[in-house]
Every structure is written in C-alpha cells, then in structure tokens.
Design brief:
With about 325 residues, this protein is of the alpha+beta class. The chain is about 55% helix and about 10% strand. Strand 3 and strand 4 (about 130-135) form a beta hairpin. Helix 3 (about 55-65) packs across helix 5 (about 170-205) and helix 7 crosses helix 9. It comes from Mycobacterium syngnathidarum.
Length: about 325
C-alpha cells in the first residue's frame, strides 16, 4: 500500500529542479492522513494508528524509494510523539520540532518549519528543558533549504516570560536518538535505491559489444557500493531492533546508533562516487533519477550530527570500553 501510494503520486507530481525549495503537498498529506499513515505510530486513543517503528521505517523507506519529500518523520515520530509522551493534546495540525541550542551552541535549521502549522519548541532552562507550542505565524522564520531542496528554516523565538512545560532530560536524549535514527533509515533507503539503479544501468547498457556489467572494473565498483550499502543497512537495523526491544533505553543503544550513522555516512561517499562513475554523464543530468538518491544521502547524513561527530562518538565509546570490554560493546552483551 505504501509503495502504491507514493508510486501513484510520483507519476503525476511535478519534479522540482536542483536548488529549488520542495513544496509541501497538502493534497498528498490529506491522502496519507485518510490512510492512517500521517500519525502511523500515534496512540489510537489520540487519533493515531497504533503502529510501531518497524512500520514507520518502512513508510519512510517507501517515500525515499519514490523520491517523495514530506515531513512524515518530523510530524509523527518526533513532534507528536513528544507531545503524547508528555500528555499534551495532539490535533490534526502539521508539526515539527525546534530544539533551541544552549549557550555557545550553533542554531540548527528546522525541517519544514515554514510549512508546518505548529512548531513544538524545546529550550534549555537550567538543568532541564521546557516545552511549548507556537503557531508558525507567531515565530520569526528565515527560510532555507538543504542539498535536495527540503525546507530547512532558521527559527528565532523569544521564550522570555514563557513558563512552558517541564521536559525531563532523559526524554530530550531520547528525542536525539530518534532524530538520528530517522536520518539513518532515510540514508540507507537512498543508498539501496542508488545501488539498484546502478545494477539496472550496467546490466542494460552495452559498450564495446557487451553489457557494462561484464567489465571487471565495473563489477568492482558495483560490489563495493553494494557492500557499503549493506553494511549501513545492517548497522541501522541492529540499532533499530535494539531500540524497539528496550524502549530506546539500552545501555548499548547510543553506541549502536553512532555506529549506524557512521557507517551510513561513509557509505554515502562510496555509493555516490561509484554510482555516478558507472552511470557516466547520464547520471549527472536532471532527467535521470540517480541524483535524487545520491544528493539525498549526502544531505541527510549531515543532519542531527555530522559524519565526524558520529565517528567521534564511536571512537569515544570504544576507548571508554577498553580492550577487555570492547567485544562486549560491539556484540551488545
């Protein structure tokens, strides 16, 4: 069903050009809402579908496979989840989350902020965080985009005089884990599709009287890309299953998420390079769909933590474990 919805949509939806801001499609959102996919993991008593993260991961992957950009994760898995967990009311408004930085930290652009109807704002207040919601019109916004044209808008909000609702630091940490996991899932889906397109291309393209797939150099490029994509996928699925099985609270989860993000980040470089190399000039054209996946992987791998940040997290965890406990850390025992 998920693939069918996005496939039907892609056949009629206009294709934006690189550098253009992706338009939020309200008609698609309403169709997804009618199918129970907009709040897929929301509690049934509050209007959600009561599904879990495995179903949500498939929904996100299906959207990526068809090159559909829409704030499903930001709305369902982050903003609405946070409100539900705190016992706050959730209506049909489209939401995103803005976590205000602490002093000395840089501001991170907010996904889909200008297109959302409500923004869930978190801000540090001493040793805790506070939360409140704003209508988008109440906020000062500077619009921007990421590498694939998805809205990434900078928010300015004055929380002076606003009490808000107390948010435990553990819940903020969980929000960070879930945000990182969302992008890992999306990067893996983009890499898988780029590899699939590359395999299709070399199997059908003939040079010097035989398919490109018969050349050993091309085979090496494809196999390296496929291996990197598979490694990223395995690391991401391992982290996701641990998260689901332990309620996002496992002692090994931070290390597993960091590993998944590190593997996915480095895989994005290899897959992008190799996929474009085997496609040649046609892979760089706007008409060919390869760039929809390679640029997406490169954009998403830098959000909610850069590749270097996640590499540092993996290294720090390994050093802290020491030689005696390193294998236990890797094996999750």
């Amino acid at each position: 069903m998920m693939d069918g919805v996005f496939s039907d949509y892609r056949q009629t939806a206009p294709t934006g050009r690189p550098g253009e801001r992706v338009e939020y499609d309200r008609a698609l959102w309403q169709r997804l809402d009618s199918l129970g996919l907009v709040r897929l993991t929301g509690a049934e008593e509050s209007g959600g579908s009561g599904a879990g993260w495995l179903e949500a991961a498939e929904l996100l992957s299906a959207a990526v496979r068809h090159g559909v950009r829409i704030p499903l994760a930001e709305h369902d898995l982050l903003a609405c989840w946070l409100l539900e967990t705190l016992g706050r009311p959730v209506d049909d408004a489209v939401r995103t989350v803005y976590a205000a930085p602490r002093s000395g930290e840089s501001t991170t652009p907010v996904p889909w902020a200008a297109d959302a109807e409500r923004v869930v704002v978190l801000w540090p207040a001493g040793d805790e965080y506070r939360l409140t919601e704003f209508d988008t019109e109440e906020l000062s916004l500077a619009v921007g985009i990421n590498l694939i044209g998805e809205p990434r808008d900078t928010i300015t909000v004055d929380t002076t005089g606003i009490t808000g609702h107390s948010v435990p630091t553990g819940l903020v940490d969980e929000l960070g884990r879930k945000s990182a996991m969302v992008r890992a899932i999306q990067v893996c889906a983009a890499l898988d599709r780029a590899v699939a397109l590359s395999i299709e291309h070399v199997a059908s393209r003939v040079q010097f009287g035989r398919p490109l797939a018969k050349f050993q150099a091309v085979q090496n490029l494809i196999s390296d890309a496929a291996a990197e994509s598979a490694l990223a996928r395995a690391a991401t699925e391992a982290a996701l299953h641990t998260a689901i099985g332990t309620g996002w609270q496992s002692a090994q989860l931070d290390f597993q998420i960091a590993t998944a993000r590190s593997c996915a980040g480095h895989a994005a470089s290899v897959v992008t390079r190799n996929a474009h190399q085997v496609h040649g000039a046609i892979g760089t054209t706007h008409e060919h769909r390869l760039h929809e996946y390679t640029r997406a992987a490169l954009a998403w791998r830098s959000e909610y933590g850069s590749v270097r940040f996640w590499d540092d997290q993996v290294a720090a965890a390994a050093v802290a474990a020491g030689g005696q406990q390193l294998w236990a850390l890797i094996a999750g025992t």
